[in-house]
Hints:
The protein has 180 residues and is an alpha+beta fold. 39% of the residues lie in helices and 17% in strands. The protein contains 6 helices and 8 strands. The strands form 3 sheets. Strands 3-4-5-6 form a 4-stranded antiparallel beta sheet, with helices on one face. A two-stranded parallel ribbon has the order 1-2. It has a two-stranded antiparallel ribbon with strand order 7-8. Helix 4 crosses helix 6 (142-155).
Amino acid sequence: LDWMLPGLSGIELCRRLRLRSETQRLPVIMLTARGEETERIRGIATGADDYVVKPFSVPELMARVKGILRRTNPETVSERLVAGELSLDRASHRAYRNERELRLGPTEFRLLEFFMRSPGRVFSREQLLNGVWGRDIYVDERTVDVHVGRLRKAIIRGREKDPIRTVRGAGYSLDDKFLN
């Protein structure tokens, strides 16, 4: 991000990215002409992963980008996702609703994780099959309905609100109204 973007400062955009659950782990490098120590400190304090002052060396920038990507690779980082009352810890393979541990099978766990990575987004059955089961496996589309039903059964107790929204003719989503 450049500090001096038109219409919105890079610092403000970085702050907004860090506030949203979908983008809070997105790697950010400030790349700007503003190089005073106080400005560099403010950029890092706002949430930038690195701060590079113009003019810069392209090989150095590439090395910094590769370093940040290595550190933020989701395969090597223990990750906890949170969406409203739901939380999921990939490292321990546990999911919770309001601190109550959910009893999920491996497919339901992957399905919940898939939904939690993009709350509010509607996924078709085909997108869910590809994202949760993988492209190289043949599974009937109605299998998605069965596993969504199992996931709902594990998540909902008593009068609790259903966080999974069925969008007729389109698919399913983690209801963004649930997140408020």
